[in-house]
Amino acid sequence: MRRLLNYVRRSPRLYPWLMTWVDRWPWLRAQLRDWVENRAAPRPQPAADWPEWHIQFTAAGQLPQHSLQTFWCGGYAALLGQPLAEVIWPRRQLLVDVSDLVRFDLHTGIQRVVRNVLHHWLLDEAAAWQVEPVFEYHGRYYYARRYTCQWLGVECPSELRDHSVSVKSGDVFVGLDWAMPMLERTEPLLQQWRQQGVKLNFVIYDLLPLTLPQYFPAAFASEMQQWLLRVARLGDHLSCISSTVAKEVEATLKAAHVSVPAINHFPLGSDLPAVPQQPPPEITNKLTDQPVLLMVGTIDPRKGYEAVLQSMRQLWRLGVSVQLVIVGRPTSRVESVVAQLQQAHQSPNVPLLWHYDCDDACLEWWYQRAQWLLAASEGEGYGLPLIEAARRGLPVIARDLPVFREVAPPATMFFADNDQLTDVIQTALQQPASDTETLLSMPTWEDSARQLLQQSVGL
Q: Which of 164, 209, 220, 280 is 20 to 30 A from 83 (CA-CA)?
């Protein structure tokens, strides 16, 4: 079932058509969402079925002698063979919500954040903590041990099970994943955990359904408002991915006349992986010697693709030599853009290439191949592609948004509206590349993981 659902979500025509149709009826969307989430979730152990070894290790006292002692003292890093620097016992749990990731790992922006931050916590950052990815199922949280072992490529000991989470005072829960509907189901449980002394921190990626409601289904704004009020009630701390989002969150909560918890922000990162030596094989027939203008992001109504396509047609008619490469999967209500992209992609005479199923290695190849990154979105919580481009010395053209001003590299060329876009692209293509030495100081994923960990455990 999970494979079928992932196939549907990866389809460039089927998924946007289906979601546009479903979005017309909010009640149907809610029912379909619940059905999909329940079918795609891993099947855990029964709620109260705690193994005897788990009871031994979670009880206070001396460290038990057991075959899982290495895991309980060193976590997943120990399963990968990393030596223990010291035995810290007892260890507090850092419970990391991956409820959406275990159901659908589409390598989109939020999920890339979750995977990168979690990877550092599991292997590097949280040695004094028992880092445990968890997921929601029917209103309870369960350990995501089978998923985590599979993701890390390590054999999962047969005794490690996805059983119900047990907590004690001093544990910390981090709502790292975007799990809005799951949180509604687990609110009573999280309230109980908080009464038991568990600290709760939630990551907020954006408030776009509230700030740009015209680009979302009608019910999204109300759902986002309710979710924000819920995390404000539950959370000891809210960690936003930018100063811009933090200000929006604070203003929205104050306008709702509710108690505002501690709010902070942390940067998203980017690392420099090995560069693939060959282009993705499925696009070799579209490769040209023209300069590449790269766009990275889901095909979404707010991302500005309509305006970019209009500008590119003008430039091509003027004889400007440039190839537009788009890396991103479609969402809903984008049938017109998807049809235009597919037609242009399939035409040998149009220098446009659309990569809707591009993995990390493929994206890295395009970052190294491109001459400019274009960010035309009308709203973002951060702008991760800007950081990834800057980390690689790739110049950036961006819409003049407060969050882009906050995170973009110094040499970024900004445009105020769609009327300026054509001229700005043409001007950019005539300029030399910027100095990469000044751009390598952008935050890494290690920086992101460290700062979020400090905000979470230092509540």
A: 164
The string of pLDDT tens digits covering residues 15-66 is: 666 666 566 666 566 666 666 666 777 888 776 677 777 777 776 567 777 7
Asked if 261 and 232 touch (Cβ cutoff 8 Å), the reply is: yes
Tens digits of residue pLDDT in 415-455: 999 999 999 999 999 886 554 444 557 789 999 999 999 99
Q: Give the span between the Cα atoms of 241 and 92, in whole angstroms.
A: 25
Where exactly are the structural domains of the chain? 41-49+71-269+447-457, 281-438
3-state secondary structure of 251: helix
Fold of 41-49+71-269+447-457: Rossmann fold (3.40.50)
Dihedral Cα 302, 305, 310, 313, nearest 10 deg:
170
Burial 194-223 (b: 16+ CB within 10 A, else e): beeebbbbbbbbbbbbbbbeebbbeebbeb
What is the token pair recorded at 440? 């390598």
Q: How far is CA 276 from CA 116, 158, 270, 395, 448, in A?
A: 20, 36, 17, 20, 25
Q: What is the CATH number of domain 281-438?
A: 3.40.50.2000
- Are the C-beta atoms of 186 and 167 separated by less than 8 Å? no
Read off the tokens for 194.
């908080």
Q: What are the tens digits of pLDDT across the range 235-258?
A: 999 999 999 999 999 999 999 999
